[in-house]
Amino acid sequence: MNDAINPVTLCQELVRIQSVNPGGCEDQCAQFLGDLLLGGGFDVTYHDFAPGRTSVVARKGGSGDSARLCFAGHIDTVPLGFNDWSVEPFGGNIVGDKLYGRGATDMKSGIASFVAAAMHLGDELLADPGVLLIMAAGEETGCEGSLPLGQELAKVVRVGAMIIAEPTYNQPKVGHRGALWLRMTTKGKTAHGSMPELGVNALYKAARATQKLEDFGFNVAPHPYLGGNSLSVGNLHAGQNVNSVPDHAVMEVDIRTIPGVRHDRLLEDFGAYLEGDIEEIEAFVDLNSVWTDPHHPWIERVYALCAARDGEQPAVAALPFFTDASVLQPAFGGAPTIILGPGETHMAHQTDEYCVVDNLPAAVCLYKALWRDYLMYYKMVCIER
To answer: Which of 43, 162, 300, 377 sits most deeply, having the most CB atoms within 10 A of its CB?
Structure first.
């Protein structure tokens, strides 16, 4: 029965369950996956961080002392955007060699693949150390679901290694940059638009700050695989009507950081750099970068399996965007982490999002091989510790 779980069909079903964030709920998607895994003999729990914002966790095999292999990812998606789609965005339709729909690549194909792999493995997972599956809500807006979930799980579950099934074309990645999203506020004095000299224009102050940010230098040596830090002013809002001088303006800034950069010090740097224009700076997303040494013994085993599949050694590489590993890796004591999933990296958040159909069964085969190899690794390394 478990071998009948088709990752392509499962991905289609997941795409048809809308879980847009912000503005939606993940509870229906979580319940669907939970019911499926419960039928496969998994222990299933649900975790809400807000009404309707449900993550689902499944466990099989192992014990409280076992250093489990963890597969993780998120079940929410970004909104559709303003451009028209040429396909039904929640249809999960297959055209040629591609499966289309919001979340097809990011990352319901990854979720479908590791759930199908776990179902196919069946009672093999009863062997120590067991497996942990995390399907989190709220990743797209700053890992809102996985942050409390990881802290809660870490009290009762050990993780020896982790696979994040984000879109990587089924190629292994050993890290990603962190994210620091800042909300910067300027304040002024309102006045009639015909007498601006009687007011203080908060928008002008924000505009000056924006100009300064374009020239901000991080003065940090680039990482050999992640490059340098980056900064982008994402939006700017000011005023309520055109014929008044705005007395309040807010801009939001997206900063991506490499390993070794301390976010608290960055906040201090921005405060000093923008002094006189910005009155308040608030971090509303603060996520760690992720990096695992490519020479870690488990990472080398993952690369060896990928090399055997492809006929050549994969290049050491990392991703520019964050994943749930930002909060799950520290929660699980710095467990070695690989980011590896069937989706198309370049299609994440795009109009007419798709994944390549053949990449899903390929991911299932790889995930099953990774589990079986982890059993040997666990016996040789983890038990000795």
So the answer is: 162
267-284 residue pLDDT tens? 999 999 999 899 999 999
The pLDDT value recorded for residue 385 is 46
DSSP state of 316: P
Taking CA atoms, 67 is separated from 131, 358, 379, 384, in Å, by 9, 32, 11, 12
The answer to whether 139 is a known catalytic residue is yes
Q: Identify the helix (H) or strand (E) that includes residue 183.
A: strand 178-187
Catalytic residue among 26, 106, 139, 286: 139
Condensed to tens digits (0 to 9), the pLDDT of residues 326-369 reads: 999 999 999 999 999 999 999 999 999 999 999 999 999 999 99
Q: Answer whether 68's CB lies under 8 Å from 62's CB.
A: yes
C-alpha atoms less than 13 angstroms from C-alpha of 78 in its C-beta half-sphere? 15
The dihedral built from the CA positions of residue 320, 174, 326 and 180, taken in this order, carries a sign that is negative
pLDDT at 2: 53
Write down the catalytic residue from 26, 76, 140, 286: 76
Residue 1: per-residue pLDDT:
37
In this structure, are residues 259 and 287 in contact, taking their beta carbons and an 8 Å threshold? no
Percent of the chain's residues with pLDDT above 90: 94
Between strands 337-339 and 158-164, the pairing is parallel
- Omega cis (within 30) before 224: no
pLDDT at 3 over 80: no
* Contact predicate 28/84, CB 8 Å: no
Contact indicator for 205, 186 with CB cutoff of 8 Å: yes
Structural domains in the chain? Answer: 2-176+290-382 (3.40.630.10), 178-287 (3.30.70.360)
